[in-house]
Amino acid sequence: MTKVLLVTHYFPPEVGAPQARLSEMAQAWAGAGAEVTVLTGMPNHPTGVLLPAYRGTVLRREKRDGYRVVRTWLYATPNEGIVKKTLGHLSFMVTSVLLGVWQTGRPEVVVVSSPTFFSIGSAWLIARLRRARLVVEVRDLWPAIFVELGVLKNSTLIGILERLELAAYAAADAVVVVSEGFRENLVSRGVPGSKVHTIRNGVDLQRFPKDGSPDPDVRQRLGAGPKDLLVLYLGAHGISQGLPAVVEAAALVQDEPLHFAFVGEGADKKRLQQTVERLGVTNCTLHPAVARAQVPQLLASADICLVPLRNVPLFSTFIPSKIFEYLAAEKAVVGSVRGEPGRILAESGALVVEPEQPVELAVALRALAQDADRRRDMGSRGRRYVAAHFDRKELAARYLDLLKRLVR
Question: Does the global pTM surpass 0.90?
């Protein structure tokens, strides 16, 4: 029996792409016979508010879906402001070692998911203390993406972080990335190709039944009228998504029966609301994040789903995990992306336009609004595509095989 310790800053009941990937991987590994323990913090993302059940405690043990969860205290802060977020990440790095290492047994392999970058430090120390293998999973190219987005500008700090990043890859027995673009980036910077393994995100197809029925109450709650087509964006409202450009596209198609619903939280939500108000659009509504259990019904109730990203070169290597859920739910998808995510969407039958180009996006949405048969065909083709290439259970099995090889 392979003993796996998964170290992650983010985990359910928090909602989001990393939480979904890691919890489903842990469940699949446990179901395949591995002994899995998750070491994480008290849930608070993205609001920075601890759930009532987790307040006033520094250590919490749980059991879920066949594996153990150990939670340690951290500095809870909203997902905004680099100083406070860094303090939150540092606090978990410290408490996960001081409090968590004695609660997690003797793993054979420690898997740490980054970002956050600081979790790698605690995972490295735990792996050394327990004489376990170390696997670093890279879900974002950090700090490179923050440099391209203009969040980090101090060259000295950037240099320090990049050296720490490469040191983490050097210390790892294996590095797992979620896209081929990420792999090429790491190899070009000197990480041995034999050490870097691509295991993309995927989707649990059982969560999204074929021919899911829309819920009129959900559609009404999201602001869609009886004759409207519901255009849905579901996910993080951060600086990476370029959602104001989607609002600009919505302003260009107000003559069409299209209603745009934005569901989620993030640092850029306030600016998104300001864009709606500034343009005076009447076909957009903003809604809070929903529990993961509600996602299948929301997607079943949508007509078109959106995958936008900012017009930043490095984003050509990023693959938003929402792509796979949209396709599994048999939705017509429009992606404002390029590079690797654009190729995946094109192969699945989705429409792809240039990022942050409201006119192009408006043209694509107008065409889909007028062609119900095309939307239906896109949904069926997308479902077949993810079933063939991005079934989470198959990806989890590949991942566990890698962990077993490392232990042997």
Answer: yes
Distance of CA 219 to the CA centre of its chain: 24
Same domain, 138 and 220: no
How far is it, in rounded angstroms, from Cα 47 to Cα 232?
A: 22
Q: How many CA atoms lie within 13 A of 352 on its CB side?
A: 15
- Count of domains for the chain: 2
User: Phi-psi category of 65—alpha, beta or left, where left has phi over 0 and alpha has psi -120 to 50?
Assistant: left
Q: What is the pLDDT of residues 170-193, one digit of tens each?
A: 999 999 999 999 999 999 999 999
Structure confidence at residue 212 as a pLDDT band (50, 70, 90):
confident
Say if residue 161 is in the same domain as residue 30. Answer: yes
When comparing pLDDT for 149 and 178, which is higher? 178
* Secondary structure of 263-288 in HEC code, one letter for each residue: ECCCCCHHHHHHHHHHHCCCCEEEEC
Give the span between the Cα atoms of 336 and 355, in whole angstroms: 4
Q: Does 188 share its domain with 63?
A: yes
Q: Contact 217/299 with Cβ under 8 angstroms?
A: no
Q: The domain containing residue 216 runs over which residues?
A: 206-389
CB atoms within 10 A of CB 20: 23
**Does one domain contain both 229 and 148?**
no
Q: Find, among 258, 245, 236, 227, the residue nearest to 332 by Cα.
A: 258
Residue range 345-391, pLDDT digits in tens: 999 999 999 999 999 999 999 999 999 999 999 999 999 999 999 99
Rounded CA-CA distance 263/7 in Å is: 28
Are 225 and 254 a contacting pair, CB within 8 Å?
A: no
CATH number at residue 370: 3.40.50.2000
CA 120 → CA 5, 94, 115, 148, 329, distances in Å? 13, 11, 9, 22, 34
Degrees, nearest 5: CA angle 282-287-288: 165
Torsions phi, psi for 107 (to 5 deg)? -70, 155
Q: How far apart are CA 295 and CA 218, in angstroms?
A: 11
